[in-house]
Design a protein that fits this description.
Elements lengths: L19 H21 L6 H8 L3 H8 L2 H15 L9 H17 L1 H14 L3 H28 L8 H18 L6 H16 L11
Helix pairs in contact: 1-2, 1-4, 1-6, 2-3, 4-7, 5-7, 5-8, 5-9, 6-7, 7-8, 8-9
InterPro entries: Homeodomain-like_sf, HTH-type_TetR-like_transc_reg, HTH_TetR, Tet_transcr_reg_TetR-rel_C_sf, TetR_C
Organism: Actinacidiphila yanglinensis
Protein name: Transcriptional regulator, TetR family
Length: about 210
């Protein structure tokens, strides 16, 4: 057992969900890590600096997370778990618009937008960060996919529509704008992304192809 946290020593750093004082320490460290990432980027993220910002001992941070990538992986896990739940507006367009506006507000936020840029950049060359980022988006896509299945049940979308592809398509234009332009991410951009995806969904663009005979 880990003497400090009472957790199995063989557990991968940053994967446990503690309670009590340890939960408060984790929250402080992850908040500090997010600030450091947004300010300095992944390349300059340092566990000792994060410990100083969080006002916890270096030993605690090194023992619990072990590496910068372990810390970032836990940060992404926490972000996925604490994201707002999906909305249910009763229509495909309404639900996709709610999703797009949630993504837009997140990416337009100075801290969150900078944090995502840093993590995405790190994921291009650091496999564990890439894996954590994939898990983050998998959680979020699975959270919102039921709204597409409900639209199929209501007759708003054709049978066989790939719900996960629809949800990915909503946010894709917003991430593209974030990463490739200096144009602001405003609610109008979110509404356009949602409207285009809803129209493509209704037209059958995301229907899964039938298996070959």
């Amino acid at each position: 057992m880990n003497a400090e946290h009472g957790t199995p020593a063989s557990a991968e750093p940053g994967t446990l969900r503690p309670g009590g004082r340890t939960a408060r320490v984790r929250a402080a460290v992850l908040d500090a890590a997010g600030d450091a990432l947004a300010e300095q980027g992944f390349a300059h993220l340092d566990l000792a600096d994060v410990a100083r910002r969080a006002e916890v001992g270096r030993t605690t941070v090194y023992r619990r997370w072990g590496t910068v990538t372990g810390l970032v992986a836990d940060l992404l896990t926490d972000m996925a778990e604490s994201s707002l739940p999906r909305s249910e507006t009763g229509s495909l367009l309404g639900d996709l618009t709610a999703n797009a506006r949630l993504v837009q507000r997140t990416l337009a936020d100075p801290r969150q937008g900078a944090l995502f840029r840093a993590v995405i950049a790190a994921a291009t060359c650091e496999p564990r960060t890439a894996e954590a980022l994939h898990r983050f988006y998998d959680v979020r896509v699975r959270e919102w996919a039921p709204c597409v299945r409900q639209a199929v049940d209501r007759g708003e979308a054709p049978a066989g529509t790939d719900a996960h592809e629809v949800i990915r398509a909503v946010s894709a234009p917003l991430y593209y704008r974030l990463l490739t332009t200096a144009e602001p991410l405003d609610p109008a951009a979110a509404d356009r992304a949602a409207a285009a995806t809803a129209a493509a969904t209704r037209a059958g663009a995301y229907v899964r192809p039938s298996p070959a005979p």
